[in-house]
């Protein structure tokens, strides 16, 4: 059997680093090539534990640079792709939509083109695209997103992800490329950039800063521990049916304000503060433009067909997450000071 040289894009980001770590450690016979251009969201410190592994390789390349992409495919004889690299933050997409078109749409099409040309015979190669539940739009207070829910993206971010999903399906249909797509709900856990709700609140509670809650805090998200997402990706990569879509989610819906209050309560206890101290930091701010009301994933297809189950309950996952941020003060300090951006020069010689 052909040895696998798997290109994982966005491996220095939040979810990507957990996928890279899982694959490098679990599959010593695979070569794992992490391609990432290290935007503000890319942090090579996330991969410190595995960076010396003989089956791990890093390539600082932008998805918009086609000759560099071609060179990476040739250099590492790439056999499969797991594509996570993206602009991922909804608020940034509202202020700069074009950056999302460039990376998420054009970057994905570049990668599809380079993979198709390099592989030639598409029979034995997989292009696995990681996507989001936001492509399905916003739910009111009933029902779930299933794999057949019509696409209805509402933000520039979700519009760009929906577009990239459509291109992946178009390449499967038109060129018979082997593809699979997963659409996952909100992830939380270690290594998430502190612009997203949960790490932002953990950071601000620790530093006695305001906790900005958009609107009334009544929007609902469906949360999944990031390592459970990485395990689902491993399962779909190895056992998913080609051409299929799988939704991934934790059946774990929370109103934003309830999450923020839970974080306050747990952190007061951990930091030895009087109960109720951190809740005083909650500050209601102007709502996000076009704020989707509710996301909720029906994950029964991946459960029934592939036997996937989330391993962690939310309370346990949140405890682990808070503990990780408190124990990894250097990581958080390096991110907030910008020092993490020096890691590449210091460890890879620029
Ligand atoms: P992230 O923002 O933490 O990481 C993205 C990574 O991609 C970074 O390391 C960044 O440097 C890299 N990158 C960005 N633009 C690039 C480019 N042009 N060329 C090369 N590399 C580039 O994102 P994340 O939260 O880990 O999300 C990863 C993927 O999962 C994304 O595709 C996202 O849409 C999807 N997703 C995220 C969530 C979530 O809750 N975070 C949920 C479902 C799906
Ligand atoms: O559903 C999957 C998506 O989840 C992913 O595709 C995205 O990449 C990821 O960023 C995430 O999008 P959200 O917009 O749901 O995540 P965020 O952490 O930005 O916000 C979660 C909720 O909290 C949302 O309703 C907005 C709200 N919020 C967010 C921030 C940053 C606040 O109330 N205050 C804040 O400061």
UniProtKB/TrEMBL annotation:
Residue span(s) of domain NAD(P)-binding: 7-321
> What superkingdom does the record give?
Bacteria
Reaction catalyzed: dTDP-alpha-D-glucose = dTDP-4-dehydro-6-deoxy-alpha-D-glucose + H2O
Q: Read off the SUPFAM superfamilies from this record.
A: NAD(P)-binding Rossmann-fold domains
Its Enzyme Commission number(s) read: 4.2.1.46
NCBIfam families xref list: dTDP_gluc_dehyt
Q: What is this protein called?
A: dTDP-glucose 4,6-dehydratase
Organism of origin is Aquiflexum balticum DSM 16537
């Amino acid at each position: 059997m052909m040895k696998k040289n798997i290109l994982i894009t966005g491996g220095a980001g939040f979810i990507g680093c957990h996928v890279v770590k899982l694959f490098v450690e679990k599959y010593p016979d695979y070569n794992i090539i992490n391609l990432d251009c290290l935007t503000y969201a890319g942090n090579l410190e996330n991969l410190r534990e595995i960076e010396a592994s003989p089956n791990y390789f890093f390539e600082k390349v932008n998805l918009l640079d086609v000759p560099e992409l071609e060179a990476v495919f040739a250099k590492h004889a790439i056999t499969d792709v797991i594509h996570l690299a993206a602009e991922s933050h909804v608020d940034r997409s509202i202020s700069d939509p074009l950056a999302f078109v460039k990376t998420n749409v054009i970057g994905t099409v570049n990668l599809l083109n380079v993979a198709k040309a390099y592989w030639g015979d598409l029979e034995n190669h997989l292009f696995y695209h990681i996507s989001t539940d936001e492509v399905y739009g916003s739910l009111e207070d009933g029902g779930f997103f299933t794999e057949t829910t019509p696409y209805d993206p509402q933000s520039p971010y979700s519009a760009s992800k929906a577009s990239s999903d459509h291109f992946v399906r178009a390449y499967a249909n038109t060129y018979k490329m082997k593809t699979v797509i997963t659409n996952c709900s909100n992830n939380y856990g270690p290594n998430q950039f502190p612009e997203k709700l949960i790490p932002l609140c953990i950071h601000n509670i620790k530093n006695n800063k305001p906790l900005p809650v958009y609107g009334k805090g009544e929007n609902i998200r469906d949360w999944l521990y990031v390592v459970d997402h990485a395990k689902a990706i491993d399962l779909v990569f190895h056992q998913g049916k080609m051409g299929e879509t799988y939704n991934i989610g934790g059946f774990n819906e929370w109103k934003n304000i309830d999450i923020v209050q839970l974080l306050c309560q747990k952190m007061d206890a951990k930091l030895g503060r009087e109960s109720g101290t951190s809740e005083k930091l909650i500050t209601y701010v102007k709502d996000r433009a076009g704020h989707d009301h509710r996301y909720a994933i029906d994950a029964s297809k991946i459960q029934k067909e592939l036997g996937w189950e989330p391993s962690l309950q939310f309370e346990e996952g949140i405890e682990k997450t808070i503990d990780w941020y408190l124990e990894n003060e250097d990581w958080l300090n390096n991110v907030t000071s910008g020092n993490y951006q020096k890691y590449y020069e210091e460890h890879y010689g620029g």
